[in-house]
Structures are given as structure tokens and as C-alpha cells.
């Protein structure tokens, strides 16, 4: 038995890398924040996402995610809260896209960020994950496959795998933030507004998709 209580670690890391590289709401949020306020905002959103994922990993390890899987009511409540938050984010981005040229220039990153906006970016990443029950169910379904049945501490093994998965994901999102921030100064204001509009529409679409998701119970 592996001293860490896990098996097939290489396969786990490879699978986790592929999953983290797949674009989704997290990538979209980091791109939007980086385009809006630069690398620090994208990095703050990425760290918030990472923190949310670790909370989900801990919850899954403690069996909270199992409750979501078994309770239609609990899953539905969290699903609707998550959809409402994603819709709010999408409408904020659409609103920014419809601003005047001067405001759009600031939104695209040409001006200084407002005080406290780094905390807002961190909170956006955190809430985007915490209010998505599918993240917790993912950890509940994926991670246990790589925990040894006879592990001395299954909880520690579960959290180790969750941490490794999360480090890969946050690392990739930091790269996305850096690439987006580097490109934002070369994007014309009209193109930046179009990107905001597309991003906002995609967030609203993601909210609708989350609402349509059925409880596994």
C-alpha cells in the first residue's frame, strides 16, 4: 500500500491536468477579470476559485457532497443560488459592454482599478465555485477512485489529491490571467466591449445550463 494512501498518482495528475485545461466558467471568469483590471485581478479570481475548490474538496471528504447527491432539495437550493450569481455576473459584464467609450476604456483596463476590486475579484472566484453543487459532486465522484481502500487516513489521502488537483488548476488559471493581461493593452476598446458582451452572454448561458442540471438523487 502506498504510504500516501493513494494509487495511480500519475494517471490522476494527467487526468486532472486535462480537466483543468478544459475551458469553463472558471477560465471565463479569470479572462474577464484579467481583461478588466489586469493580472492581479485575474490572479485574485484564480486564488478565489482555488479556495472554493478546496472547500468543496473538504466538504466532499467529510461527506457533505454526499448529502447534496442524496437530497434533491439541497441540490436544488444550491443550484438556484449558483445560477442567480452567475446571471448577476453575466449582467454586470453586459452592462460594462454597454457603457460609454470612456467607461469602457477603464473597464478594458486602460485606467486604474477601483479600491477594493481585488477583494471583489477574489470573492467572485470563491462564490462562483461555492455556489456550484456540481463542483462538490465532481470531487465526490472523481477523487475516491484514487484513494487506497486500506489507506491509514482516507481523509488525508482525499485532501492530498484535492490539493494536487487544485494546484494544477490554479497554476493554469494564473497562466491564463498573465496571457490575458498581456494582450489586453493591444485590444481596441470596441473589441474589449465585444469581449465583455460575449463573456456576459456566456455567463448567463452557464446559469441556464446549471438550472437545467438534474439532481443525481
Describe this structure in words.
By secondary structure, this protein is mostly helical. It has helices at 9-21, 25-37, 39-62, 64-70, 72-97, 101-107, 117-130, 133-142, 154-184, 189-212. The two termini are 34 Å apart. Mean pLDDT is 78; it is low at 101-116.
Order of helices and strands: HHHHHHHHHH
Our Rg estimate from Cα atoms comes to 18 Å
Arithmetic mean of pLDDT: 78
Q: Note the main sheet.
A: none
- Helical content stands at over 70%
Low-confidence stretches: 101-116
| Cα separation of the termini | 34 Å
Number of domains: 1
Report the count of strand segments. Answer: 0
Treating each run of at least 4 consecutive H or I residues as one helix, how many helices?
10
Instruction: Name the structural class.
Output: mainly alpha
Which descriptor suits the 3D outline?
globular
Q: What percentage of amino acids are in beta strands?
A: under 5%
SSE topology:
Elements: H1 9-21, H2 25-37, H3 39-62, H4 64-70, H5 72-97, H6 101-107, H7 117-130, H8 133-142, H9 154-184, H10 189-212
Helix pairs in contact: 1-9, 2-3, 2-7, 2-9, 2-10, 3-7, 3-8, 3-9, 4-5, 4-8, 5-7, 5-10, 6-10
List keywords for this structure.
single chain; 217 residues; mainly alpha; globular
Concise account of the structure shown:
The protein is 78% helix and 0% strand. By secondary structure, the protein is mainly alpha-helical.
Amino acid at each position: 500500500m502506498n504510504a500516501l494512501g493513494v494509487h495511480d498518482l500519475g494517471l490522476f495528475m494527467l487526468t486532472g491536468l486535462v480537466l483543468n485545461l478544459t475551458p469553463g466558467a472558471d477560465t471565463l471568469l479569470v479572462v474577464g477579470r484579467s481583461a478588466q483590471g489586469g493580472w492581479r485581478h485575474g490572479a485574485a479570481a484564480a486564488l478565489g476559485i482555488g479556495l472554493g475548490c478546496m472547500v468543496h474538496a473538504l466538504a466532499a471528504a467529510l461527506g457533505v457532497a454526499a448529502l447534496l447527491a442524496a437530497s434533491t432539495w439541497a441540490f436544488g437550493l444550491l443550484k438556484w443560488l449558483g445560477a442567480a450569481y452567475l446571471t448577476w455576473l453575466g449582467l454586470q459584464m453586459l452592462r460594462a459592454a454597454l457603457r460609454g467609450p470612456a467607461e469602457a476604456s477603464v473597464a478594458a483596463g486602460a485606467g486604474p482599478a477601483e479600491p477594493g476590486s481585488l477583494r471583489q475579484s477574489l470573492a467572485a472566484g470563491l462564490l462562483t465555485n461555492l455556489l456550484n453543487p456540481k463542483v462538490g459532486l465532481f470531487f465526490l465522484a472523481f477523487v475516491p477512485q484514487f484513494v487506497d481502500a486500506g489507506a491509514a487516513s482516507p481523509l488525508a489521502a482525499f485532501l492530498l489529491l484535492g490539493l494536487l488537483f487544485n494546484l494544477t488548476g490554479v497554476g493554469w488559471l494564473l497562466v491564463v490571467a498573465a496571457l490575458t493581461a498581456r494582450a489586453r493593452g493591444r485590444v481596441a476598446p470596441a473589441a474589449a466591449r465585444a469581449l465583455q458582451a460575449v463573456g456576459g452572454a456566456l455567463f448567463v448561458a452557464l446559469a441556464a445550463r446549471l438550472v437545467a442540471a438534474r439532481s443525481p438523487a
